[in-house]
Design brief:
heterodimer; A: mainly alpha; 2 domains; B: 71 residues; mainly alpha; two-stranded antiparallel ribbon; 63% helix
Chain lengths: 135, 71
């Protein structure tokens, strides 16, 4: 279990992982789009590309959770609150859209969109000014 | 919880960022503590007390001193 390391160290360790992984994500995505054809390329290649593109994002999520453990107490509180709010908003959206699909109000919404939606909701919740009174 | 962190900080001519750097917390943490939005944990309260050379009771007022004085 990672121990708290303070704000600066936690932030530096997060960014040291975040930027290389995002660069890897972009390179993998563009290389995949360039070299792999979604209709004619073999299944193993398409499956491998899908996993390869997703892996850097797994890494970013791991780095986010590590930063939550390592950063200072107030930042940790804000981050956990934002993660909870982002998760609640995303789950609410999933339920609503799911029922709208079940009752044939809307057609299928790509599951993929909920990932970026979560990060957007998390970011909004984190940037919201004023935490309010805490214990 | 009311406190005198802001007064002690400005007395020394430190910015919120400078105090945050000394405590290894974010500037937002210092702001939240100074404005009473966030009450620090005991380890952070001890760090503040050591940094300013005061006791925790001198830095923070939980209202009991005023209540006891009124009795």
């Amino acid at each position: 279990m990672t121990q708290p390391k303070g704000f600066r160290t936690a932030s530096r360790r997060y960014l040291m992982v975040f930027w290389p992984l995002m660069a890897l994500y972009v390179i993998t995505l563009f290389a995949g789009v360039y070299f792999v054809d979604e209709d004619t390329s073999p299944l193993y290649l398409r499956a491998g590309l899908a996993v390869a593109v997703a892996l850097p994002l797994f890494g970013v999520l791991w780095a986010m959770l590590r930063q939550v453990r390592e950063t200072d107490e107030y930042t940790r509180l804000r981050q956990l609150q934002a993660l909870a709010e982002g998760g609640a908003i995303t789950t609410s959206a999933i339920f609503l859209i799911g029922f709208l699909e079940i009752f044939n109000v809307i057609s299928d919404v790509p599951l993929f969109l909920f990932g970026p939606f979560f990060f957007f909701a998390f970011g909004l919740a984190y940037c919201r000014r004023g935490l309010g009174k805490t214990v | 919880m009311k406190n005198i962190i802001r007064a002690l900080r400005t007395e020394r001519g430190w910015s919120q960022q400078e105090l945050a750097d000394k405590l290894d917390v974010s500037r937002q943490s210092v702001n939240a503590i100074e404005t009473g939005k966030y009450d620090p944990s005991l380890p952070l309260a001890f760090s503040l007390a050591r940094l300013f050379g005061r006791s925790i009771e001198e830095l923070f007022d939980d209202g009991t001193a005023v209540a006891e004085a009124a009795e």
